[in-house]
Amino acid sequence: MKRLLFYSHDSYGLGNIRRMVAIAEHMVKHHSDIHILLLTGSSMLHAFRTHPQIDYVKLPCMQRDCDGHYQAKLACLSNKKTLKLRRKLIKQCVKHFKPDLLLIDKKPVGLSNELRDSFAFIAELKRKPRTVLLLRDILDQPEITNNIWLKNNYFPFVENHYDKVAIAGQATIFDAATLYQFPRALCDKTIYLGYLKRVVPKHNQAQSDNYFTNGPEKRILVAVGGGNDGVPVLKTYLQGLSQVSWNKQLQSLLVCGPEMSELDYALLHELTNDLPNVTLVEFTRDFIICLAAADLVISMGGYNTLCEILSVNKPAIIIPRTTPVAEQLIRAECFNHKEIISYIHPNHLESSKLMDMIYDQLFRPCVPTAERSIDMDGMENIRRLLVNLMD
Predict the structure, then answer these.
(1) Which letter does DSSP use for residue 212 in this model?
(2) Phi and psi of 250, rounded to 5°?
């Protein structure tokens, strides 16, 4: 039996945990002798169906605000005590689970250095687990990212403690190793995986009919990730629908996200009262099925959402988040340059502009676009990488 320990620190949004769960599912689908324990700060992991060979340990939440600052979720615990508890839990999991491999998501030493104790423990072991740092395609602006890595001494730490750095993207879209100025020694252990293609279930009419009816209208899916900062996108879309004469030709599914406040959700629900064929939901486990059933996707520019859009080959209008990091904006610009998606900068988001773009996508004659030269083999490539490292 092989034991893999996955670490995903973030409790902000759904992106990190969705990515790690998808990789775990792909691993156990192909290997009956692999078992995975996932350490996560996400409060939403319970909402995902997981395989019998996958289990998880929930770390106390450190909530991130829109400025990127972290605070303990429980008011009875200080940030210091919460982080101390997380550090101890992580180290105990490493000690007692005895993994053959650690896959660490995004932060080389974890949130607020919470992995350092575990790496110090690993350094003393006679039989050390293999270690892989998983980075999404884009972290932030190159200068900002490079300064952060230099300030926190990430470069020497990764060189000394990690066997591989796996970037879930491709260099022809965004050459992270070059733009973030990885030292030569780090470049030598860096591999580009390609983007992580999602498994698209065979279209289940019954499941998609929970949200879309089987009518002649065009189907639009609007999604804003976790939802805590997605109100402007959803509100602009609903306002735009109320202003166009062709709104009866559409069916709209709006996925608000589990982190949206009840007040914001209620206000959006009021905007749907006089609009035809609009469904508003907080969360759906059938997101990929609804995505496959849609004719057009409008969303923010998170890594996982874009991978899912590419997996179902749907036209998309992206309205990227621009703070606290520029990752989504850079990704939208890169993919727009390749003529793969359209995007609107949030500073230029207006209902009339959004409706014009929707109409062009759905009702005007199609113009041939550049072929999507995107490497979508990332899921299989990371499976092979982890298996080969353990072997």
Answers:
(1) S
(2) -120, 150
Phi then psi for 272, rounded to 5 degrees?
-85, -10
Q: pLDDT digits over 135-181, tens only?
A: 999 999 999 999 999 999 999 999 999 999 999 999 999 999 999 99
* Of 36-50, 72-86, 293-307, 376-390, the least confident: 36-50
Count of H helices and E strands in the chain?
15, 15
Asked whether 24 and 75 are in contact (CB, 8 A), the reply is: no
**Burial letters 193-216, b for 16+ CB under 10 A, else e:** bbbbbbeeeeeeeeebeebbeeee
- pTM above 0.70? yes
Terminal CA-CA length for the chain: 12
Q: For residue 194, is pLDDT > 60? A: yes
Distance CA 372, CA 389 (A): 31
- 139 within 8 A of 16, measured Cβ to Cβ: no
DSSP H or E run through 279: strand 278-281
Beta bridge partners of 36: 4, 54
Residue-by-residue DSSP string for 159-187: HHH-SEEEEES-TTT--HHHHTT--HHHH
Q: What is the pLDDT of residue 10?
A: 73
Note the pLDDT of residue 209: 64
258 upstream amide cis, omega within 30 of 0: no
- Cα–Cα distance, 100 to 125 (Å, whole number): 12
